[in-house]
Amino acid sequence: MKKIIFNDQCVHVVFLGLPNVPGIAAEIFNKLSEHSVEVSMVTQNTMRGGRSDLSFLIKKDRLDEMIPICRAVSEQVGGQGVSFATEVAAITVAFESLSAAETLAKIFTALASVGANIEIINSTSESAICIVSLTKAREGLEALEKVFVN
């Protein structure tokens, strides 16, 4: 049996078009830590042109406070902006005995079967966190529970 955690009280924050140089993420997270912001599922993607996107989750109840802070730090570090996706849910599946590839295949298949598109996924050898649209999140959770829990 796998453990599945559902969180629909999160916001997917994406710092867009950051300069891809050392220290930028440090500046961002130093500013967030000054405000005691809890973050999870941090990912960074390098793009063409020496830019990268940095994304993570925060709690929805911190959004109003964090919008101006994130926008200010993005401007300070030379970013191209920040987006805040509020209509998302994070579904975490903890692995126990299947290989990571086998488990990921089952996750992708289950979510696709109900039309839940994965906006971003972060996986280790022990768990996967999927960000999906809130409109399909409950259906996605049910599909995953059928595969992994029942």
Describe this protein's structure.
With 150 residues, the chain is an alpha+beta fold. The chain contains four helices and eight strands. Strands 1-6-8-7 form a four-stranded antiparallel sheet, covered by helices on one side. Helix 1 packs antiparallel against helix 2 (63-77) and helix 3 crosses helix 4 (134-148). The radius of gyration is 16 Å and the shape is elongated. The N and C termini lie close together (8 Å).
Q: How are the secondary structure elements laid out?
A:
Blueprint: E1 3-7, E2 10-19, H1 24-34, E3 40-46, E4 51-59, H2 63-77, E5 81-85, E6 88-94, H3 100-113, E7 118-123, E8 127-133, H4 134-148
Antiparallel strand pairs: 1-6, 2-4, 2-5, 3-4, 6-8, 7-8
Helix pairs in contact: 1-2, 3-4
Query: What class would the helix/strand composition place it in?
Result: alpha+beta
Helix content: 25-40%
Categorize the overall geometry.
elongated
Percent of residues in β-strands? 35-45%
Radius of gyration: 16 Å
- The H-and-E topology, N to C, reads as EEHEEHEEHEEH
The rounded distance between the terminal residues' Cα atoms is: 8 Å
Short description:
The protein is α+β, with helices and mostly antiparallel strands and about 150 residues long. It has four helices and eight strands; from the N terminus they run ββαββαββαββα.
